[in-house]
Write a structure and sequence with these properties.
By secondary structure, the chain is of the alpha+beta class. The protein contains 15 helices and 16 strands. The protein has helices spanning about 15, 60-70, 120-125, 130-135, 135-140, 145-165, 205-215, 250-270, 275-280, 285-290, 300-310, 320-330, 385-395, 400-410, 420-430, and strands spanning about 25-35, 40-50, 50-60, 80-85, 95-105, 170, 175, 190, 195-200, 215-225, 235-245, 295-300, 335-340, 360-365, 370-380, 415-420. The protein has 2 domains: about 15-105, OB fold (Dihydrolipoamide Acetyltransferase, E2P), CATH 2.40.50.140; about 140-435, 2-Layer Sandwich (BirA Bifunctional Protein, domain 2). It has an 8-stranded mixed beta sheet with strand order 6-10-11-16-15-14-13-12. Helix content is about 35%, strand content about 25%. It binds 4-amino-1,4-dioxobutan-2-aminium adenosine-5'-monophosphate and magnesium ion. 4-amino-1,4-dioxobutan-2-aminium adenosine-5'-monophosphate binds near residues 240, 375 and 423. Magnesium ion binds near residues 363 and 375.
Length: about 450
């Protein structure tokens, strides 16, 4: 193994702006974000993945050929600019590059300029117009989207570190499956060599099969839901962080849900404060999410609170977004709802042995109107109970034979949860819509680009 990799690029704009190269000559590789000037002097804002810096080129210093190549370079041209780093308080970021040489790498045809213009962006007003969605592959380079993707990367990293620090094993389940986990109405059917298969809604059932082998397991993987309605918190393909743990009760699983969300908030504060602030997020809010214990109320208590607020709701209904949104007004940190009615939840939830109208489960709702980010609970683990639950549901059981089998050989109490990663990124970044935080959002109307 080599301990150093020779890198084609080893100087980053972010490091230059951090003062690591003051008064030195550096070679910067990146893309032109903005350019202006005259026939004698050009001001070019160069961006790379780490930041941006104003660079100044003069005809006198560069000679006609290099100056003209710079002058003709329009937005998103990729370039290598060599120059001297000047400390300059007036410059954005405190530094400016005096260009001594210009190399154009990937030119942009002036007849087909970069379509994501300032005016297209301001028309969108932080939202996502169809135009920006059609040009998503180019929109990714804008600072807002880049910022979202950095926050997203940190959230994924935090999920891995939370579980790995606690000795959970990462485990993968198939994406082509034969049956529903979360109910048939959101199943995606795919032709499968003359038969039917489905895209998985959740890793859970296959994780339960591995639970007696690994005891503590987790994943981050895509899940699929044929959600017809387009809402600010639904995707048809979303990233799902799920965990399963042997011997654990609903209360213990909730401790992990809370621990994970607080760890994500804490990691964002450590790694992405600048990015969060650039989106207008108040860091005090994120600190509160990292530091304050999450309250817990029962489903019945939630229904009572909603009824008090004049919301029409019948006991036994699952809580949809409109109702969750109203509930979240009572809290300024995430909060658990526990003990849902059996009729509101899928077959795998364990019936409360003290009252069989309820199951031992929880949802975690994010505050500020965001609503459900986690669903989880204890599993029906004994063979006769799972058979009974499947019979009550009345559907075909062929696809679940493997699942029943796992209970026939040394079943044990266990539980787990699923966290919608895109929803968490959306909430913590303060986005208006889940589409804003995933590179290529999929909904009922869009699979392109
Ligand atoms: O509540 P859900 O449906 O629970 C499950 O899938 C369980 N099998 C998880 C488990 O126990 N292992 O989904 C879990 C979470 C939701 O709380 C939500 O955050 C997210 O997944 N989610 C979605 N995110 C974006 N778009 C969608 N269409 C989503 N559906 C669920
Ligand atoms: Mg749910």
């Amino acid at each position: 193994m080599r301990d150093t990799i020779e890198m084609a690029k080893d100087i980053w704009v972010g490091d230059v702006q951090a003062g690591k190269y003051d008064n030195e000559t550096v070679e910067l590789k990146g893309w032109i974000k903005r350019a202006r000037g005259s026939n004698k002097i050009r001001f070019v804002v160069l961006r790379d993945s780490t930041g941006e810096i104003q660079c100044v080129g003069k005809r006198d210093a560069l000679g006609d050929d290099e100056f003209d190549s710079l002058k003709n370079s329009i937005i998103e041209t990729s370039v290598i600019l060599t120059g001297v780093v000047n400390v300059d308080d007036r410059a954005s970021g405190g530094h400016e590059l005096t260009i001594t040489s210009v190399e154009i790498v990937g030119p942009v045809n002036p007849e087909k300029p970069f379509p994501i213009t300032e005016s297209a962006m301001s028309a969108a007003d932080g939202g996502e117009t169809e135009f920006l969605l059609d040009n998503r592959h180019l929109y990714l380079r804008t600072s807002r989207m880049t910022t979202m993707l950095k926050i997203r990367s940190t959230v994924f990293g935090a999920i891995h570190s939370y579980f790995r620090n606690l000795d959970f094993l990462e485990y993968q389940a198939p994406n082509f499956v034969a049956g529903a986990v979360e109910g048939g109405s959101t199943l995606f059917e795919v032709p499968y060599f003359g038969k039917k298969a489905y895209l998985t809604q959740s890793w859970q059932l296959y994780a339960e099969a591995a639970m007696p082998a690994l005891e503590r397991l987790y994943t981050i993987a895509p899940s699929f839901r044929a959600e017809k309605s387009r809402t600010r918190r639904h995707l048809t393909e979303f990233w799902h962080a799920e965990m399963e743990i042997a011997w654990a009760s609903n209360a213990e699983v909730m401790e992990h849900g809370e621990g994970l969300v607080r760890h994500i908030a804490k990691t964002l504060l450590e790694e992405r404060s600048t990015e969060l602030e650039s989106l207008g997020r108040n860091l005090d809010d994120i600190r509160r999410f990292a530091d304050t214990p999450f309250p817990r109320i029962s489903y019945d208590e939630a229904v009572r609170r909603l009824q008090e607020k004049g919301v029409e709701i019948e006991w036994g209904e699952d809580l949809d977004y409109s109702k969750e949104k109203i509930l979240t007004q009572d809290f300024d940190v995430p909060h658990f709802l526990t003990n849902y009615p059996k009729i509101a939840k899928p077959f795998y939830h364990r019936v409360n042995p003290e009252d069989d109208k309820y199951v031992l489960c929880h949802d975690l709702l994010a505050p500020e109107g965001y609503g459900e980010i986690i669903g989880g609970g204890e599993r029906t683990w004994s063979e006769h109970e799972i058979l009974q639950r499947l019979e009550e549901e009345g559907g075909p059981t062929d696809a679940y034979q493997f699942y029943i089998d796992t209970r026939s050989y040394g079943g044990v109490p266990h539980g787990g949860f699923g966290l919608g990663v895109d929803r968490v990124v959306s909430w913590l970044s303060g986005a208006d819509h889940i589409r804003e935080v995933i590179p290529f959002p999929r909904d009922s109307r869009r699979v392109t680009p």
